[in-house]
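Interim report, section 4.2 (structural modelling).
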Amino acid sequence: MSDGYLLKNLLLFGRILHELGLDVSPGRMVDVVNALAVVDVGRPTDFYYTLRSLCVHKREQIPLFDVAFDHFWRKEERGVELNLRDNLTNVQKPKPIVVPPALDPESEVFGNDADDEKDEEEQPVIEVTRTFSANEQLRTKDFGEMSAAELHDVKRLMAQLIWQLGQRRTRRLQPGRGDYLDMRRTVRANMRNSGELLSLSWRRPKIKPRPLIILADISGSMEQYTRLLLHFLYSLTEGLDQRVEVFVFSTRLTRITRQLRNRNVDAALAEVATAVPDWSGGTRIGDALRKFNYTWARRVLRGGAVGIIISDGWDRGEPALLSTEMARLNRLLHRFVWLNPLLGSQEYEPLTRGMVAALPHVDDFLPVHNLASLEDLAVHLALLDSGQARRKRQGAAFVGRPR
Amino acid sequence: MNITSIDDVQTQLEKQTYIADRGLATAIYLALKLQRPLFLEGEAGVGKTEIAKVLAALAGRDLIRLQCYEGLDVSQAIYEWNYTRQMLHIRMAEAQGDRVDEGELFGRDFLLSRPLLHAIETSDDTPSVLLIDEVDRSDEEFEAFLLEMLSDFQVTIPEIGTIKAQTPPIVILTSNRTREVHDALKRRCLYYWIDYPTFEKELAIVQAKVPTAAADLSRQVTAFIQELRDEDLYKIPGIAETIDWVTALVALDQTELDENVIDETLGVVLKYQDDVVDVRGGKARDILMRAKAR
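Predicted structure of the assembly:
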């Protein structure tokens, strides 16, 4: 292979990697060319590792890189690049589109954007003049009993909620009134005082919002709430400055953090729908938590995080497992909140096996069945570190009953 | 350090009892040749930090090490002013009736080098070797400090100016992946993911590290650990644990692995009580049987 040919192919390969979502620019491929100048290109293994060490910077990307590499450098003949690119794109998106079961034929959670936009254009006045009492009714109506039109309204109101999460002191210091002497600024400020420190400068810990992690139940028993809860998760992700990690589960655990980051809510939820393989399946909360604890906790849980589980607690798994994994997760979290839509009913008692096993490890047990409960939740979360939110004792969660 | 090829890297590392596979050797070779930092990721105990130590030994330099933690700042990582000297200097000048010159007070004489600056200052004909350990433990603010250092091997101090390394130091960054490190940082580096080793490789490592262990013992322990990694554990043991275990068993005069000694020493390998309880007894027996059949 002549040099010119190799360079051309490298650039093409770089472009394919870029299209596959790897962080590869033409500049990076120049690095590759420089690197190849010092290794023996004739040796396939060395060629492979040279490309890999420069084009990949995440472990998850390695399998994708391998497929691309095999196709491009080993199997395919040159000249079928277009076809090849299609193949590669398919590798990344093999999942069939599975949309969660419709609540109502007219429901619009997963409706297309064009309609929504049109809607807003046509009814701006109605939006503003909607009466308080109408909103008031809507606020206290159970999500599960809402019509498609009401759901549509409630989604809009949900987007207006302001989310704030407790804050924690980090170990990073910044100038300010605090307990730590800032020698650098002190010396500078006192230079003219013949070495006498007449005024002292201080530093204090930097405050940052707590990271949030959410595990949402999307099993069959939660079906009537699922669509709206996804909207809720989206507005939470959008509304908070800090990193929010979101997972959903029924029989399996799926991370949907990346999907929710889409700017457009409908596009985001459509992506979630594609990513999740087990809508409305059975519930195995313990298994889902175990999966989270074993494979994700170390990667996504940073110090002082707040965790939220959204589930009705109908669990078909082993209660002992659920209890163990709840306890483990609780030890990793600053605060552990369980949101249960059934708690919206005055008569509800958390007596299911799953709820009984889980409750001792929960700090706050709150309803999540209507807009009012979401507003309460927003207040509760905002007060977490102000000392005003009640702190649980072992085995006794703070239980918020609906208004 | 005079390295001529990837094979050469492998041979040199082996002399320092570090067994590296081809991929890692390639990444190290490129890091040296292209003078770029090497970013190593992998589970705990797969030998990330060890590479830096071995490279330092090969270069004939002391390893300069920066352990990362949350809140790590410029005064701990790059430089700090020597305040005591500054104060004394001001007083001396005062006693002699001189005015203190600010430029003098914030000059090189009053500067204390921390690991990053130290690595840059001492990198002369032979490059210095710098280990930035567990980057994932630091916070995003610290990553920003690293960018200048890693792309241009220089540090800018507002009062003095830019200090550049004579030759680029050899820089190794490690991460246990407890969080994603920013892409801007990774982009400046060569990346390599260190996996758990194959049976053959791990056995070679054990034999190189604990040459006094009986052949059967090394083989059985390595096979046991390899089987153990397939179990559903909260924390999977790394190579460091394998080496520790063999060393412990040698200290206990064991020449073979048996049920009793496994139960007694399992804590060397498994660091979570849940895992110990899970494996001890029946499961350990099964694994031992499979390991011996291997």
